[in-house]
Design brief:
The protein has 173 residues and is an alpha+beta fold. It has two domains: 4-12 and 89-150, ACT domain (Alpha-Beta Plaits, 2-Layer Sandwich), CATH 3.30.70.260; 16-88, Alpha-Beta Plaits (2-Layer Sandwich). It has helices at 25-37, 65-79, 104-114, 138-146, and strands spanning 4-23, 44-50, 53-61, 85-97, 121-124, 129-134, 149-150. Strands 1, 2, 3, 4, 5, 6 and 7 form a seven-stranded mixed beta sheet that branches. The longest helix has 15 residues, at 65-79. It is elongated and about 55 Å long. The termini are far apart.
């Protein structure tokens, strides 16, 4: 089997996943505004509309989860919506395909399924694919995906001790 080339991958650990089911669009918009007001970053957000409302999967830093969950619960209780479900700790594992890498999602899902791993969420764009997994699955996911994908020379797959974190503080340079 031919290995697939990607331009790189990274992971972000110590995240919480909040799942909202059947919320109205306006409710999701209100929650997003409240999270922004509270300076809560969302490294992953996936929304899907349906006839009964919107399903949302969002990831945020574990340390911010109590505040974000409280905002969501307050909205849910005030309007009779379902309260958010929480899963933690989770990781966001992001891949950057080379041009023409349209098979990346299918190949990644096949690798994960072959290793008995089931993502909690998956999102793609033209530039990247992000898979959300329980954090304890990181070593097995890296092994499974590393067996199928080739990184460019000089790149290395994420290791347990490596994590990409966004900081609100700008360093002088």
């Amino acid at each position: 089997m031919t290995r697939l080339r990607i331009t790189g991958w990274k992971h972000r650990r110590e995240l919480s996943l909040l799942a909202l089911k059947d919320w109205p669009w306006a409710g999701v918009n209100t929650l997003a505004g409240a999270l922004a007001q509270a300076h809560i970053n969302l490294p992953f957000l996936l929304m899907q509309g349906g006839k009964d409302g919107v399903w949302v999967r969002l990831c945020l830093e574990q340390g911010k989860r109590p505040q974000a969950q409280a905002l969501a619960v307050e909205l849910a209780q005030a309007h009779g919506w379902r309260e958010p479900l929480v899963r933690e700790p989770v990781i966001a594992l992001t891949f950057y395909p080379l041009a023409g890498g349209m098979t990346l999602p299918a190949e990644a899902l096949a690798c994960l399924a072959g290793a008995g791993l089931h993502p909690l969420a998956l999102g793609t764009s033209l530039a990247a694919m992000t898979v959300i997994l329980p954090e304890e699955m990181l070593p097995a996911a890296v092994e499974a995906l590393g067996s199928r994908f080739d990184l460019p020379e000089g790149a290395s797959p994420p290791e347990e001790r490596v994590s990409v974190v966004q900081s609100p503080v700008k360093r002088k340079g």
